[in-house]
Write a structure and sequence with these properties.
mainly beta, 6-stranded antiparallel beta sheet, 4-stranded antiparallel beta sheet, 12 strands
Length: 193
């Protein structure tokens, strides 16, 4: 009997490649050895966000964890001004046995090979008020080079290293706000064969 495990994976947060940053010189020239005097009203800002939720729904005897049986970490994207993006930091997932090891409650145990796919809802993206029309998001296990879909994926492995990308520009009649965070979500399934 197949056992199914769902892990909600927040595949990516923040991507601000279109925002430029001033370069810091490696050395200060002798003529510019004094610090500049900021003008009144000069402002610098940083967009920060913290969020979190329980990402894993264990099966009866199997559970998805992050690397080395740790928490499932978020990935990071590099986003371009046209809405195309690629993974900067992938997400590592492991499928492990989930059983009572004498403690009275179930815990993650040894690695266990499963088949990895994306649930039928597929992969979604939100980008603040920006349109995501035209994006063609693909999720790939970097280790095997296999794309994960709702019908197929990486088979017979206990660990996957997942990346997402879209090489298709966003189709939008209005200008894109490049300060909005792009977030990609997917439900990844580890199924016992």
């Amino acid at each position: 009997m197949n056992k199914l495990l769902l892990a909600t994976v927040l595949a990516a947060t923040f991507g601000f490649s279109a925002v430029s940053q001033a370069a810091v010189p490696a050395t200060i020239p002798a003529a510019a050895a004094t610090a500049p005097t900021p003008g009144a009203g000069d402002v610098s800002s940083a967009f920060l966000e913290w969020s979190g939720f329980a990402k894993v729904i264990p099966g009866n005897d199997i559970v998805i964890t992050g690397a080395r049986s740790g928490a499932v970490e978020d990935g990071v994207l590099t986003v371009k001004g046209d809405g195309t993006f690629e993974t900067k930091t992938p997400i590592i997932l492991e499928s492990r046995l989930y059983w009572d090891q004498g403690s009275g409650s179930k815990t993650a145990g040894d690695l266990f090979a499963t088949n990895w796919t994306v649930d039928a809802d597929g992969i979604t993206a939100t980008w603040g008020a920006n349109s995501t029309a035209g994006m063609d998001i693909k999720m790939t296990d970097i280790a095997s080079g296999t794309e994960l879909t709702s019908k197929a994926g990486a088979n017979g492995v206990s660990t996957v290293t997942l990346s997402v990308n879209s090489v298709s520009p966003v189709t939008s009649a209005t200008p894109l706000n490049l300060l909005e965070p792009l977030v990609v979500n997917a439900n990844v399934l580890a199924t016992v064969a």
